[in-house]
Amino acid sequence: MSRLLLGLCLTAVLWISAVHSQANNEDPLSAPNLQPETQPPTDGPPQCDAGTLAGGMDTLDFSALECGEAECTERRDCKFRIGSMGGGPSSRGLCENTITGAREALQQGANSLIMKVCLSRDNVPFVWYDCNMNNAEALARRLGQFTFGMCTPYVHPSVAGLSAHELDFAVIREKWGYRKMFTDCEKAEGSDYAIPTLEEYLKEFAMEPISFVISHSRAGLTRTQTSKIFWMAAKTVLCLGLGDRTILSVSDLAHAEMLQCVIGNAGLDPRQLAVNFRIQPGDIADEVLITQSLAQMETAVATACSNPGVRRVPVPMLRFIQAGFQQLFAMGMEITSNPVGMAKLMKKFQPVKQLNGTCLYGIFIERPDMPNGKEMQEITVSRALQRRNKNRPRLHIYVAVINEHKEMAWHIRQGVDGILTGAVDTLAVVHDTVKACGSENRPAHCTPGGGSSTGEVDQPAVPQQVAELGPPPYITQCVNTDGSATELNTFNKVLRCWATLLKVWSTALEAAQNSVPIFISAE
User: Fold this and answer.
1) With helix as H, strand as E and coil as C, how does 197-210 read?
2) Residue 253: which domain range?
3) What is d(CA 484, CA 480) in angstroms, rounded to the nearest whole number?
4) For labelling alongside 217, which of 9, 85, 110, 436 has CA 20 to 30 A away?
5) With contact defined as beta carbons under 8 Å apart, do 144 and 182 qualify?
């Protein structure tokens, strides 16, 4: 009897289910049509395995993708972007592009994290600045130049000639990394210095009310390699439900239309693409010769560090390297001080005019690495804002990299949409101060004056909070070969000299190596 009742109940349940399914034109035996989530679940971000996201990517012909035109609509982000270039303040000894550095930057007031992303041979996107470790910029950074924080990139000699796309990520994580400072010989170990995958990095901060900017290194990448980086970045961002909070930024305007097509086919809104504008080293000097000189320095440092028991670079070698960077800095000053040469560079540095009809999220105007880079950047920002306000009101304009508080105040008052900096704590204070100064009831510490080559504007006096920070831990001198010191006009947290073009460099280097070595204490 009980079996009969159970059978009747099951029959009734199946009949009701069938009727309900037919009423909704559904097949009662088919699997439910579940749509993927577009937002991360409340209990944490989903798993976004690189192997799954890269499925079929290697067979794609990126040059043959079908692309629709992005509709240019008003998409103004009214929140001022306090962007952290890589991590927290250098005084804490943190490394750029690490999770620890980014967490510190958020605590200091950042509301946007800017990262460089590369792609390994096995298609794992990871957060790292230099995809090609053998171009001029990468070599200079390994020698302690142009970095954020107090760490420099480290590459084990066994893979020194290889780039990201030639190595699996497991090898990269083992053989690449950071040194605590340029003078260290050994790779720093521990979670604070680990290279994160893009998924690990974004998942760490996905629940924070912040935005992200994903970019890539400029040199040494083919169009296909760049396309793969953007494809995987877009797929990862979408998998984590961060599409509306993430901008992808390309360093070459000529690639912008192609990459809009790439990220659009990957599923991301093509309007989430921005463009970086920056004068390249090759615009003012022979980049091949620069790279050769830097490679000589790198080889000399590796040779010195290979001596048993040596953990720091010899002092004489440091002095010669500093002198070499000073020489190229001087060469840049000579070229850009020429009115004709300067006019040619400024013609290349007109971002809004060059965009024409391209529909983009915005532009990042970077400071050229040259003595008058500040003036060039200010002129460009002023022109870009005038054109934007007149013809392209939806375009977001950001500036990078500004670390000095008076310059921050100037750009904020000009009307930029955000600043990328290595001094997040300073920018957070300056931004709040300038906003207060712009109100009708101006605080006592807001005083008129200042201005620059691009016009007179009100600037606040140095806020007390900024003044109390004290002098930044910059290196402010280049030591010449004769032992004298030359003061530098530094605007970054690193020595702003460049690579040497002196033909006598190899002779001086050999003399330094053959001299009695004087080593810095390891403690």
Assistant:
1) EHHHHHHHHCCCCC
2) 80-467
3) 5
4) 110
5) yes
Please give the model's pTM, rounded to 2 decimal places: 0.77
What is the Cα–Cα distance from 289 to 447, expressed in whole angstroms? 48
Phi, psi for residue 29 in degrees, rounded to 5? -100, -5
Q: In whole angstroms, what is the distance from residue 389 CA to residue 189 CA? A: 49
The whole-angstrom separation of Cα 20 and Cα 493 is: 67
Bridge partners (DSSP) of residue 149 are 95
Any domain includes 221 = yes
The stretch 38-59 carries a mean pLDDT of 72
In this structure, what token pair is assigned to residue 189? Answer: 């170990």
- What sign does the CA torsion over 13, 16, 20, 23 have? positive
Asked if the structure places residue 445 within a domain, the reply is yes
For 240-263, the DSSP string reads TT-GGGEEEEES-GGGHHHHHHHH
Is residue 514 one of the residues assigned to a domain? no
Give me the phi and psi of 487, to 5 degrees please: -70, 145
Q: What are the backbone angles phi and psi of residue 338, rounded to the nearest 5°?
A: -75, 120
Which residue has 């090759």 as its token pair? 282
* CATH value at residue 277: 3.20.20.190
Strand partners, 95: 149
Could you give the CA distance from residue 130 to residue 457 in angstroms, rounded to a whole number? 38
Tokens of 141: 């950074």
Amino acid code (one letter) for 121: R
How far, CA to CA in Å, does 467 sit from each of 337, 405, 429, 461?
33, 10, 11, 10
Helix (H) or strand (E) holding 155: strand 152-155
Rg, C-alpha atoms of the chain: 26
> Cβ distance 274 to 250 under 8 Å?
yes
> What is the structure's pLDDT at 122?
96
Q: Which tens digits make up the pLDDT trace of 383-435? A: 889 888 887 777 899 999 998 888 999 999 899 999 999 888 889 988 988 87
C-alpha torsion angle, residues 343, 344, 349, 351 (rounded to 10): 100
The 3-state secondary structure of 44-90 reads CCCCCCHHHHCCCHHHCCHHHCCCCCCCCCCCCCCCCEEEEECCCCH
Closest to 379 measured CA to CA, from 341, 343, 426: 343
Structural domain includes residue 199? yes
Counted domains in the chain: 1
What residue ranges in 251-392 does DSSP mark as E strands?
273-277, 362-366
Could you give phi then psi for residue 246, rounded to 5 degrees?
-125, 135
Residue 239 to residue 237: CA distance in whole angstroms: 6
> How far is residue 144's CA from residue 42's CA, in Å, rounded to a whole number?
42
Amino acid identity at 205: F
